[in-house]
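Q: My labmate handed me this sequence with no annotations at all. I'd like to see what the chain might look like in three dimensions before we decide whether it's worth expressing. Could you predict it?
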Amino acid sequence: MVPGWPAVARLLGLAAVATLASAPAACLSRADRCAGVAVRPGDSLECPVPEWVDRGFDLEVPAGWDGRSPLPILFAFHGGGGNRRSAASVTCPDGKLDAPGCLSAVARAAGFAVVRADGTGSRPVRNVRTWNAGGGVGPWNCTSGGACKSGVDDVRFFDDLLAEVGRVVPVDPKRVHLTGLSNGGAISHRLACERPERVASFVALGGTNQHAAAGGACSRAVPVLQIHGTEDPCWAYETGATSCLSEEGDKVGVAPSMEGWRARNGCQPATDEEALPDRDPADGTRSTRLRWRGCAAATEHIRVTGGGHTWPSGHGYLSEDRIGRVTRDFGSELIVEFFRAHPKP
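A: Here is what I predict for the chain of 345 residues:
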């Protein structure tokens, strides 16, 4: 959740910001490599989104695809201050993009195409990017930063992005799924609220949304899994202004956000709880999965006791005293399995 250049510099340090700034920009001049080109199984492409300057996307196609059948699509949204490349590395053990535990590798092995797009860039570092997940009214934090404050229409961007992906590969309309950490989780909430006819299910990590808690534009049931650490220093588990940056306003907590989805998804108030195996006793975390009963659409939460603002079994991209602990109790395979289990009816 990054409000702008000064806070980015304080949090990440100038060297890290310079690294982000030097990351290649979207290949906006390479439209000939995307829409209208024959895409082969296993291909990776960089593509522009027409009419959205400096906001491209990466597309990774599963090697097992037959080249014809409609593909399930997994959209992975970066966090505030990140970009589409950081959306990939944060999910990887030790940040190694070739690791088999990366979200992209797990998803492609399960037959998903993976899309990672860029949010709105800041200046002077254009690859420090944010999503407009709403807020900024009354006591609520404007989520996030420049994209929210300038009112970027990221719901329309998603519409255009999905349409462009569909011009590159055939999309299975019953299997469009969303995920992301922090600001990426918050925009996943917003898109599920405002585009439930297009979103089959979503998994949000370390980020909730006022829309989900208060109703907002939400109108239909959507399967949801919220993953959140109880010691997250950047998006606190409870509603409040606690943040790892100097931001204004409260961020809505896990309980009111999930209560909004519970009501919308037709669930009973009661939950079933399952303690996940403690795969790494040394990581300082324990994870519990809660499932609400009697739902029209699956409504689940994994509470990571002791966990921080991190991707499970992913990259601890800053020191533990800045972002908290990384749980090793589970990883991206659980997230992908949730998507596999919840296509549209």
